[in-house]
Amino acid sequence: MTSEDFRDGLGDIDVSVLPRDVVRDLEVLNPGVKARVQRWLTATILTLEEDPVQALEYAQQAGRIGGRSSVVREAVGIAAYHAGEFATARKELQAARRIGGRDDLIPLLADCERALGNPRKAIELASSPEGKRLRGDTQAELLLVAAGARADLGQTDAAVALLRGPCAQTPDSAPWAARLFYGYADALLAAGDTDAARDWFMRSSAADIEDETDASDRITDLDAN
Asked: What is the C-alpha separation between 55 and 7, in angstroms, rounded?
């Protein structure tokens, strides 16, 4: 164990878990700072799911010395989002987007606005030219956030309309299909169309090979009522 290990308190940590694009982005930092930031980011990744508050502390340590890197600011933002610190998450994700030109962060930024009680700002982000250019998984996530923001405003029919076309055009094999179908089913249920909601919960359950949703439980609940 090196003196640096004692200083940061992380012990023997394997930084090879860091994605290549993260390592590449850290090249803007000097070698000594880069090595320390890699350790803090690795600790963030390893603890994010089980202890998001601790993960945020690790990410903030990385941010204090590596804030010029877009992926460091993104890591702080994501950790803050998972820890429920949405104002901090918005600030850090905005910085990451500004530094790196990362429009794929728009869905998270929009969801932060929802969590902060700003559904109209979430809708504005989803309706922006940059938001409309998103594709694939990030597009699906932004649609779900925008539909949720519509629901926050009591615009349940608008939420249904927003998701209807994309769901009809999304194959069941798409990696985001289960989440998108689930969100559509939820919107239909909120709008009072229970039969259609059940059908889409069924499609979500069938597409959910990664067990990302509780669609099957929602079907059981509907059938029990």
From this structure: 18
- Sequence-ordered list of residues with C-beta below 8 angstroms from that of 147, at least 6 positions apart, any chain: 159, 160, 162, 163, 183, 184, 187
Contact 102, 96 (CB under 8 A): yes
At 118, is the secondary structure helix, strand, or coil?
coil
Quote helix, strand, coil % in the chain, to nearest 5. Answer: 75, 0, 25
Residues of the chain with pLDDT under 50: 1-6
**Interacting residues of 214 by C-beta distance below 8 A, sequence separation 6+:** none
> Mind listing the domains of the chain with CATH numbers?
1-101 (1.25.40.10), 134-225 (1.25.40.10)
What is residue 3's predicted lDDT score, i.e. its pLDDT?
34
Cβ distance 47 to 55 under 8 Å?
A: yes
What is the tens place of the pLDDT at every residue in 108-142?
999 999 999 999 999 999 999 999 999 999 999 99
CB 93 within 8 A of CB 74: yes
CA atoms of 125 and 66, how far apart (whole Å): 28
pLDDT at 141: 98
